[in-house]
Amino acid sequence: MAVSKTNTQVTWSSATDKAVSASSNETSDAHTFTSNAVAAMITVKANHGGTPASGDTVDFFLLYTTGDPDAGVTDEYDTSGHGMHIATLDTNTDNPAIKTVEIPVSAKGFKIYAKNNDSNATITVSAEVYETIIS
Fold first, then answer.
1. Predicted confidence (pLDDT) per residue in 4-34, tens digit
2. How far is CA 44 from CA 31, 62, 70, 76, 87, in A?
3. Cα–Cα distance measured from residue 77 to residue 135, given in angstroms and rounded to the nearest whole number
4. Higher pLDDT residue, 69 or 23?
5. What is d(CA 104, CA 77) in angstroms, rounded to the nearest whole number?
6. Residue whose C-alpha is closest to residue 24's, from 112, 113, 104, 128
7. Which end of the chain is least crowded, N or C, by CB within 10 Å?
8. Cα dist from 91 to 26, 45, 65, 110, whole Å
9. Could you tell me the pLDDT band of residue 73, with boundaries at 50, 70 and 90?
10. Sequential DSSP letters for 40-61
């Protein structure tokens, strides 16, 4: 068996990053895990375009899918209020703020839900998945 690693950019309406308006949220396009992935890490980034202040944070959640719980045709994802919290990035502490965390790969895939907690400014978010694959 060979072990390889691959990185994949998470996209937001096919773009590599997304400007999240003040007090708003955005959901990424779907990411599907490679079928023979045995481990994965995700790096999330928040970049405040202005001068950050206290409370200028972004919460990142994974909205997993295992398919369709209703046995329909379309994959359904965790709802935004029930996603797996993976990071809160504080742009007042570090700008840009970046964090890498290990994530489970047993699901079919996920979307990222990013919630901007800054009530005054847009914060740009991006992410990349790094998978370990056995073939």
1. 999 999 999 999 999 999 999 999 999 999 9
2. 14, 11, 31, 23, 8
3. 28
4. 23
5. 15
6. 113
7. N
8. 17, 10, 29, 25
9. confident
10. EEEEEEEEESS---TT-EEEEE
